[in-house]
Specification:
The chain is 0% helix and 35% strand. By secondary structure, the protein is an all-beta fold. It has a 4-stranded antiparallel β-sheet with strand order 1-2-3-4, with no helix packed on it. A hairpin with a 2-residue loop joins β3 and β4. It binds zinc ion (ZN). The site of zinc ion has 8 residues, from loops.
Length: 75
Amino acid sequence: MDDSGIDRCPVCLSPATEGAEWVLLSRHRTSAGYIEYCLSACGCITVLRDGDLLKSVPSGIGRTSAPRGDRRGAG
Ligand SMILES: [Zn+2]
């Protein structure tokens, strides 16, 4: 299958909407290179190092390590 015309999210493989852009959440330099956190239009988060995919977090996941106890009314 060709990917021409339609971009797919590398994380959840859902077709990206036309003109959808990744949002750069954070970028910082480490001894191993530049680390970038990007948010997809579908809600997935990817971590890149020098442009290479290091880690991906599907949409809906990633709040498991949220601190608890300080705030009330979560959810
Ligand atoms: Zn996705």
